[in-house]
Amino acid sequence: MKKQKIHLKAPDNWVNDPNGLIYYKGQYHVFYQYFPYGPRWGTMHWGHAVSRDLVEWEHTGIALFPTKKEDQNGCFSGSAVEKDGKMYIAYTGVRYEKNDPEDIHSSQVPHFDSTQMMIVSEDGQTFDNWADKRTIIPPITDSRIGHRMHTRDPKIWRGRDAWYMIVGSTLDEKQGTALFYKSEDLQDWHYAGRALKPSLPGWMWECPDLFETEEGHVLLLSVIGLLGKAGREGEHTICFNVDFQEDDCRMQIPDTYQFLDHGLDLYAAQTTLDEEGRRIMIAWLRMPEKTDDGWIGMFCSPRVVTVRDGHICFEMHPNIRRAYARKIDDVAQAAPEGYMLCFDLLEGESVDIGGFLVYRKNGCICTDRTAVSASVNRAVSETPAIEGETHLEVLVDENMIEVYINQGAYVITNAVYHLKRSVTSSVPKEIQIYTTT
Question: So what's the pLDDT on residue 375?
Fold first, then answer.
């Protein structure tokens, strides 16, 4: 099977949301939305990749594919948990009311059913798609609770006394919402509550992820229509510090939120605990065009989620940092998976990474990919203003650049194309360059 290092990329054709992120039986598992027939969105399957260390990845093939009436038009996003040594996967099955006769992977009319489904694996490697799937939550019929079409992306976790699930939904395709369900055995689920934030723009909440940190609960949401624009320019992943009461599934969402990543290219983030008990996150890089090799879609490097004085941070995972162990003098000496730059950036200084500009202006760290972008409207990204010194660690891949600022206090991640193998700068101090061994 195909092996990759640092950044997990589509093995071919198309990938989007990461699914079922879990550390299970000594391996990290990432499943992902996968269309195996071409570099475009279509009938979703679940691809599967594994790693021992979050650095070296191996694609193992297709884990889930449509076999039932409820998922005949796609096995959409979901999550994985372990119980009694088995891997339980919850996902959203989709059935179109009418397929497009000219393209069976599309719907002719915008009407479909979404069903929350489950499949169990004894080893996390083999999945009986014919015999082991079952419905756990049928399509919603009460529009006061959610939406029969737009209810999706179940995320499951073990609480103090039961299993819990959060699912993204909408009220009348006007107001995003999240639904909570509870189960004693992962088999029988009952509705337990709902989260709303009427003041938050956006008509649909996707890929909700709720977890606890030392400083309280954090909620991740991917919101359609957040910025009031069509398509990817209006759909973004945000995060909140929230007050969540497990007993009755009440959640208070504050008025302010953070962007998950200030590059605004990442979406559909998912978290789990790593081998050491750290909360880690990965997300899908939305690429506007396929690569020269004919594939589209990849994931950011794994990040550790922490909360510092109320600010949610996404630090580079220590395994990733350790992987860049060989110091080099020139980026031309870098390994195929790329390189890491380390430098400080003061007001007015800039670094040109093969046509990708990183600079500091009015206290903000900014990037400009005009010279290395594809068909995207937004070329410039920036953080809020930062006081004092800024230290940057920049991971450079041929199709992704990740700019970590002050140990993940902010991150800018951008899709790029046709980077040059060069680095020039106005930074007076030497830039440190590292690559993998």
Answer: 73
Nearest Cα neighbor of 415 from 394, 401, 434 is: 401
pLDDT (tens digit per residue) in 206-218: 999 999 999 999 9
Residues 6+ apart with CB under 8 A from 368: 356, 357, 359, 379, 380
8-state DSSP, 323: H
Would you call 161 exposed, middle or buried from its count of C-beta atoms within 10 A (0-12, 13-18, 19+)?
A: exposed
Cβ atoms of 271 and 211 closer than 8 Å: yes
Query: In whole numbers, what is the pLDDT of the chain averaged over residues?
Result: 96
Strand partners, 193: 180
Q: Are 217 and 249 in contact (CB under 8 A)?
A: no
- CA atoms within a 13 Å half-sphere pointing along the CA-CB vector of 169: 31
Which pLDDT belongs to residue 53?
98
Q: Which amino acid is at 80?
A: A
User: 163: helix, coil or strand?
Assistant: strand
Residue 201, both tokens = 């723009």
1 pLDDT above the threshold of 70? no
DSSP 382: E
Residue 377 confidence (pLDDT): 72
CA gyration radius, the chain: 21
Q: b vs e for 172-206, b when ≥16 Cβ sit within 10 Å of the residue's Cβ?
A: eeebbbbbbbbbeebeebeebebbebeebebbbbb
Burial of 380 (0-12, 13-18, 19+ CB in 10 A): exposed
Extract the tokens encoding 151.
């209810």
Nearest to 415 by CA among 400, 397, 403, 404: 400
Concatenate the DSSP letters of all residues of 61-90 into one string: EEEE---SGGGTTBEEEEEEEEETTEEEEE
Cα–Cα dist 187/200, whole Å: 33
Q: Using CA atoms in the order 228, 230, 233, 234, what is the torsion angle rounded to 10 degrees?
A: 30
Phi, psi of 65 (to 5 degrees): -150, 160
CA 349/CA 194 separation, integer angstroms = 47
What is the residue type of 173?
A: E
